[in-house]
Structures are given as structure tokens and as C-alpha cells.
Specification:
Strand content: 25-35%
Oligomer: single chain
Shape: globular
CATH superfamily of the largest domain: Thiamin pyrophosphokinase, catalytic domain
Strand order of the largest sheet: 4-3-2-1-5-6-7-13-9
Distance between the termini: 33 Å
Length: 205
């Protein structure tokens, strides 16, 4: 599946840990100030989508200009553009840890594209967030904190196995913080659920 990498403008002091998320054949889009992250990653985006309220055009990078006053964020516009070009696998870098309103907007946008059949991953140097639709997913072995949140009104039939705090067919509502700070304890750990939209979060101290 073709993969789109979206670079956002959230402050990134150390870009080195983010390089592992980028492969040579990825299509890379810088959303406005995300061009600064591209410079830190030492890559030249294939495209820049921007209203240029926090960046300037870059020589050698094709740009699509957006109006400053608009009804979508630069990141949402960039994702829609990639979606229209056939991309269904997205990794968002530089979209966490900056302005809280923009982080929330990225999560909401990620949910919307997940519901349209996309795989969406958001990452920074300490966090890895994945938006999940109903199904069964293997959990990688990790010593990081593992948390889950309902992005829809509720997540039905949530089952966690191979973790410190297992669950069986739990109804997780969007105001329920029960699934914060779990841990993977077995090599065959998995998460599954029957309905809803689930946010999976791996985080480091």
C-alpha cells in the first residue's frame, strides 16, 4: 500500500528518532511549518501544502497554496490531497506536542480518515498513536506504557490479552479512562474489539 508521510509544525527538538518512520518510496508532504521538520530530517518533501502563515516557499519543492482563512487545517488539507491521490496509509510526524488545539485537531482528522478506510499512525520521539477500526491487532513486544481510549461514543467488545491488565468484551466509553497505563507482558499480546473507533497509545516516560 502506498504510504503518505505528513510533516507537521509541532516543535521537534530531536528529529533523529523519527527517521525510522520514513522509507525511500514514501510520498512526503510538508504541511506549512512542517517544512522545518523536513530540514531537520534532511529530506526534501515531494509537496508542500501551506497558507504560509508559519513558513515560506522552499526552492525545489512543489507547493500548493491555501488561503489563510479557511475551514480546514493545513494538515487536514494535506491528508485530503494525498487521499485524493490514492493514499490510504498515513504516518503523521510533527503533529503531537505543539499547540494543544492542533494536536486535538490532528486526532479528530485521523479518526475521520480511519473511518474512510485509512491506516493512520501519529508519532513523536516518545509517543506512537494508532487509530484502530474493529478487528484483531497484534501488540508488539514493548516496555512502553500502553493505553487505549474510545474516539467514538464507545468501543464495544474490547478484549486485551497478553497484557498486565487484561480485559474481556469490555464496553469502553469515551469518558472512561480505565485503559490508561497498561503493559505488554507476553509475546502474543493482542487487542480486539467489535465496534467503534479506538485510539492505541504507546508512550515513554
Amino acid at each position: 500500500m502506498k504510504r503518505g508521510i505528513l510533516l507537521g509544525a509541532a516543535p521537534t527538538s530531536d528529529a533523529e528518532p523519527l527517521k525510522k518512520y520514513i522509507q525511500p518510496d514514501d510520498f512526503i508532504i510538508a504541511a506549512d511549518g512542517g517544512i522545518r521538520l523536513a530540514e531537520k530530517l534532511d529530506i526534501l518533501p515531494h509537496l508542500m501544502v501551506a497558507d504560509h502563515d508559519s513558513s515560506a516557499p522552499v526552492e525545489g519543492v512543489k507547493a500548493i497554496s491555501l488561503p489563510v482563512e479557511k475551514d480546514v487545517t493545513d494538515t487536514a488539507a494535506a491528508m485530503q490531497l494525498a487521499f485524493d491521490r490514492g493514499y490510504r496509509d498515513f504516518t503523521l510526524l510533527g503533529c503531537l506536542g505543539g499547540r494543544l488545539d492542533h494536536t486535538i485537531a490532528c486526532l479528530i482528522t485521523s479518526r475521520r480518515f480511519a473511518e474512510r478506510g485509512c491506516r493512520v499512525l501519529l508519532a513523536d520521539s516518545k509517543h506512537e498513536l494508532t487509530v484502530l477500526l474493529p478487528g484483531v491487532y497484534r501488540l508488539p513486544e514493548s516496555d512502553r506504557h500502553l493505553s487505549f481510549f474510545a474516539l467514538s461514543n464507545c468501543v464495544k467488545g474490547l478484549t486485551l490479552t497478553g497484557v498486565k491488565y487484561p480485559l474481556n468484551q469490555y464496553l469502553l466509553k469515551n469518558d472512561d479512562p480505565l485503559c490508561v497505563s497498561n503493559r505488554v507482558t507476553e509475546g502474543d499480546a493482542a487487542v480486539s474489539f467489535d465496534a467503534g473507533v479506538l485510539l492505541q497509545v504507546f508512550s515513554e516516560d
